[in-house]
Design brief:
By secondary structure, the chain is α+β, with helices and mostly antiparallel strands. Helices cover 20% and strands 29% of the residues. The chain has a single domain, classed as Hypothetical protein YwqG fold (Roll), CATH 2.30.320.10. It has 7 helices and 16 strands. Strand 4 and strand 5 form a beta hairpin. The longest helix is centred in the last third of the chain and has 14 residues. This is DUF1963 domain-containing protein. Pfam families: DUF1963 (PF09234).
């Protein structure tokens, strides 16, 4: 099988997200930023971690985006997401945890609210600084095939070592979708990797292993099991690139991305409280 055929075999559907400009409020609409639509008993999530001034305290998470699942359904050709309700994403954008430490748990949250008619716009927490209250931005969606970066491809085909042939085949597919090179925000599909494959990383850190400089401390059999099976159990839920609109800019690290991962089992059961977030940048 040629590299082109292998790459095609691994193709997955993704929902590409494109920033369109300023948005006006509509209950339950897909959008970036603004005030999230939530139920009456919603408690705004906070992350208790060390701040830049070395103080451990609760900090409200930033509301990033919400997606109307009924609107997503036409683009979700593999039927992985709920077909109703509202999916909402939060992240602590001040210190921007990287996700290689089990202590980062809680720096990101995902909620699925089934009944949109029971929701209303939430007030921002009184202690949330203006810098973390983002403007409301319109999101345009479409469905596109996505293909793995070299790091994930080489894990799926460990005997394949011809990076140049892979790069040529991958670039050929990207040339068919030039808009996909401009902004890499998406739901589902393959992540665009900046550093390393993240499936085993999600698997190990959620088992409690610190990965900052601790890979060598992980028992060999546990690491091998994760590296051999995690890519079959975890998938990308949401990848967010830099967001720019007017004078507003949200960047992760140095031109990086954040990636929300979830196991296939948890996604099928709508257990969005069990996601894991990783940040990568250049």
């Amino acid at each position: 099988m040629s590299i082109k055929e292998k790459l095609e075999l691994l193709g997955k559907n993704s929902i590409r997200l494109k920033i369109e400009g300023k948005e006006t409020y509509k209950l339950g609409a897909t959008r970036f930023g603004g005030q999230p639509d939530v139920p009456a008993d919603f408690v705004w999530p906070a992350y208790e971690g060390e701040s830049y001034d070395n103080v451990v305290k609760d900090r409200p998470l930033t509301f990033l985006a919400q997606f109307n699942c009924a609107e997503l359904a036409r683009f979700d050709t593999e039927h992985l997401l709920p077909d109703h309700g509202l999916l909402s994403f939060f992240y602590e954008t001040d210190t921007q945890c990287w996700g290689y430490d089990p202590k980062d748990k809680g720096c990101s949250r995902v909620y699925w609210f089934e009944d949109i008619s029971a929701l209303a716009a939430a007030d921002f927490p009184a202690d949330m600084e203006d810098d973390f209250r983002f403007p409301m931005v319109r999101i345009k969606m479409d469905s596109k095939n996505s293909y793995p970066s070299w790091q994930d491809f080489s894990e799926a085909f460990p005997d394949e070592e011809d990076y140049d042939a892979f790069d040529s085949a991958w670039a050929e597919r990207m040339e068919e979708d030039p808009e996909g090179l401009e902004n890499r925000s998406q739901l589902l599909g393959w992540p665009f990797i900046i550093q390393n494959s993240m499936f085993a990383e999600c698997d190990l850190v959620t088992q409690g292993y610190y990965l900052g400089n601790g890979w060598g401390k992980i028992p060999k059999e546990i690491r091998q099991r994760a590296e051999g099976s995690a890519r079959d159990r975890w998938l990308l839920l949401f990848q967010l690139d830099t967001v720019e609109c007017g004078g507003f800019e949200l960047m992760f690290g140095d031109c990086g991305h954040i990636y929300f991962y979830i196991t296939k089992e948890d996604l099928a059961a709508c257990r969005f409280d069990r996601i894991w977030l990783i940040l990568q940048c250049y």
